[in-house]
């Protein structure tokens, strides 16, 4: 009796298929379209940051040097030249630019001219405050914009839709500092419900700064301390700045969610689900929401730059001592090193967040590939 050869093999026991070596799995991963797409996006982070650093460097130098502006009418020409030489502003512009890039590559952003502090220390001290404000604003934007956008799509071309679209346009078009001043006037000055400015009351700030290894994120530090009064105080101070900055992005999200949900609700597979009796909230959440998430996630990433830009005005309006507040101060003083260091950090944050958004969009929608 002749035995049939084993499935996928030969009579002598050897297989016909290609053998997989120990590195074949790694090569297969590297050939994955998703990995190639993310690798290209990651490689684009460096030139994006370099371009922004270059633009800021030359734009700041185009306004003149801060030494001449500050001391031209108080020093003799010889003394002024000595200060220029000490600061390095008498060297060729391209030489200054190359030296600046070398410093940045080693993590050295120089020292501020106004208060002689290391720029890295300024970034560490005030960066946590801006991060906290951005997180609060993003939370407000998503909590307000996404549900209202879904509601507008659910009642499209009816009264709720018209009201929500008008509110979205007003929210996006109104300057953030005007919204901040209006909120302060109504809820802080008029009603007295919330504090006018600051990240926390003076007593709370002192207690949080006395903690061992404070993070600078007041809410996290307050939770670590176990002080319920401090947590409540930090939350009360965060409400108005978060609303002022978050409502700006909420208007964008509302219109975006509405537009893409309407397009998704008209798709054939959603119509098929509707014909099977699926409707209402279940139709929106299980069949229409996920395809509409990709453009929403992408725009969220693009709006990080808007959040950081709006943080400058919001922090100034509410005296929120973050990088935006300090940036306004250093711009007024024409402190080159400080401005360049803060903008460099903003550039890195925007580039990295956009990479993460691209990665998340590719995971949500398999069609997103190079």
UniProtKB/TrEMBL annotation:
Residues 127-361 form the ABC transmembrane type-1 domain. CDD domains: TM_PBP2 (cd06261). The chain crosses the membrane at residues 38-60, 126-151, 163-187, 239-257, 292-313, 337-364. It is found in: Cell membrane. It holds the Pfam family BPD_transp_1_N. Keywords: Cell membrane, Membrane, Transmembrane, Transmembrane helix, Transport. Gene3D superfamilies: MetI-like. Residues 9-19 have a biased composition (Basic and acidic residues). It is a multi-pass membrane protein. Its main location: membrane. Residues 1-25 are annotated as: Disordered. The keyword Transport applies. InterPro entries: BPD_transp_1_N (IPR045621), MetI-like (IPR000515), MetI-like_sf (IPR035906). Belongs to the binding-protein-dependent transport system permease family. This is ABC transporter permease.
